[in-house]
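Can't paste images in this forum, so I'm doing it all in text. The chain is below; anyone willing to post the predicted structure tokens underneath?
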Amino acid sequence: MSAELGGAILKSVSRSFYITLRALPRGLREPVSLAYLLARASDTIADSTNAPAEVRLKHLRAFGNMIEEGAKAENLHSLSDEIIPADPSERRLIKRAGDCLAWLQATPEADRDEIRAVLRPIIRGQELDVVRFGDSGNIVALTNSEELEEYTYLVAGCVGEFWTRIAFRHVRNYARLDLETMCKLGCNFGKGLQLVNILRDLPADLRAGRCFLPGDELARAVVGPDEVLSSTEKAKPVVEFWLARAETYLADAQVYIEALRHRLLRFACLVPWAIGVRTLALLHANPPLETARRIKVTRGEVHRILLRAGASALGRSSLESWRHQLAAVRNARGF
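Text version of the structure:
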């Protein structure tokens, strides 16, 4: 069961992150893969907007309770009848949600506790998403920077902490820095990647009625959430502030990667970091509110990143060549 879930189904819903997962040692790969599948299933419930907000919220909370209580598949009831994602891979995952819960029950207790611990904030963040934006026909913005920082922690920063805690337990001599320091850096690693995704997806989210830019910052720029797409110059300083914040977090992520002793894990962390940095460079060169197409790293670029990350993971000294990537971001020079 876990072999199929951690193979074809995981690959179909994880896209580029699947590369990272496959690079992990087996003892670490299974709990991280399962945590990802559970988080992806709950995210699919939250994002399936063809179901009313109250229905999504009901299933999201029920799914979270089942993770906590060790419920079995029969307790899922009407999940796959009421939550029908547009994406076929996500529909398949929802239908196999019960098997994911069974896999969780079969997982060693220490790993199971860690998975449950990281799913709590993730599902909390997804619940906030549904409650805040719901079925409103208007564009709704987060209130302030504290809400945006909280959101990036709940859906991604906590993942960096989870990854770090479980890696310290499974991998001998995981890092040159202590657990507490690495958890802080790992948290910022996750928040940085999430911020990049938020900034990249700004236009699509705004058209869907969701504004992740803080409302109070937009007010100071004299632009309302419903005016952001039509008043891009006014909103630009707010976007640039959060691009700079993402850079700061990804700088911490680089420190995290350089502290890693394990070559495969260094490669696993380098890949999403490098894709995040490249995306950030593209966002500087093509401001998201001023660009018609969705900013995306091409397959060719991902392939080059994989080759370069593989070479860099061979030794700590070879990481020197990555040190200037964030400095190059402000000038939108790629790699």
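The longest strand covers residues 140-141. The chain has a mean pLDDT of 88.
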